[in-house]
Amino acid sequence: MSPHGIGLATVRVSYAQPLPVPSLSPGRGSPNQLIIEPRLFASPPLFNDPTLQSTWAHRAWVATGCTTVLVSLAKSMVAAASSHVWLEPILAGYVGYILADLGSGVYHWGIDNYGNASTPIFGSQIDAFQGHHKWPWTITRRQFANNLHALAKAITFTVLPLDIFCNDASINGFVSVCAGCIMFSQQFHAWAHGTKSKLPPLVGGVTGCRGACVAVTTCCTSQAALQQQLLHSKWSLE
After folding, report:
1. What is the pLDDT of residues 158-179, one digit of tens each?
2. Among the listed residues 110, 148, 112, the one whose alpha carbon sits nearest the alpha carbon of residue 131
């Protein structure tokens, strides 16, 4: 009890559930007046969230994207066999792999660090990527087609014209490998977040898959650890 007869109460707030967090700021009327401004933490997706499930539309886009990539690869192999020139298409495919790895890393970095949900064109991707760093486990809960359909749609519209009009072995070799790696990059990312015991046997045996994603995983893990500390700590106002 204070000398003026006013009791001082201790308030403890637990963040097990998303609750408003009071923010104290000086009042506009008086420099000594404080105004409590409630702020809300976004809720993480549930483990059985329907937005993590695949739909038939998702599966159709993934199937279409895979088809366009395989057609490009097949045309490259046929053209190489007809011309008896294999080295150039193979080198072109290797360059496609390197550029896909580099390009997806730079794109991921840009989306993570710039813009927000209201950014034109890229807003939904920015919101999803930045949300992923808050709750990185969600990518391991997404079903296969749900995880890949957005990239598969972009690959379909990009590669399909080349499938129709291009017959060059090297170009198709580059496009098929680059587009395939980009389309499946989200799945590689999901595997990088998973434990080895839960990976498919073939993937678990290829340690390079996890090594290729170590930088992204380290970044996500460090941010996730900070988020967990904020969510599970107890704040006291005395």
Report:
1. 999 999 999 999 999 999 999 9
2. 112
Question: Which range marks the domain in which residue 190 is found?
Answer: 50-229
In a domain, 197, yes or no: yes
Is the entire prediction scored with pTM above 0.70? no
Cβ-contact 52, 45 below 8 angstroms:
yes
Nearest to 154 by CA among 54, 62, 51, 56: 62
For residue 18, tell me if it sits in a domain.
no
Give the bridge partners for 13, in sequence order. Answer: 235
Q: What backbone phi and psi angles, to 5 degrees, belong to 159?
A: -85, -30
Phi-psi region of 152 (alpha: psi -120 to 50; beta: other; left: phi over 0): alpha
Q: Which helix (H) or strand (E) holds 65?
A: helix 56-83
Structural tokens at position 232:
């599970």
In the block, residue with structure tokens 């490259």: 76
The predicted-structure confidence for 76-114, as pLDDT tens digits, reads as follows 999 999 999 999 999 999 999 999 999 888 888 888 788
- Here the tokens at position 102 are 């580099």
> CB count, 10 Å around CB of 31?
7
- Residue 211 inside a domain? The answer is yes
Q: Please report whether residue 41 resides in a domain.
A: no
| Cα–Cα distance for residue pair 193/184, rounded to 1 Å | 15
Domain tally for the chain? 1
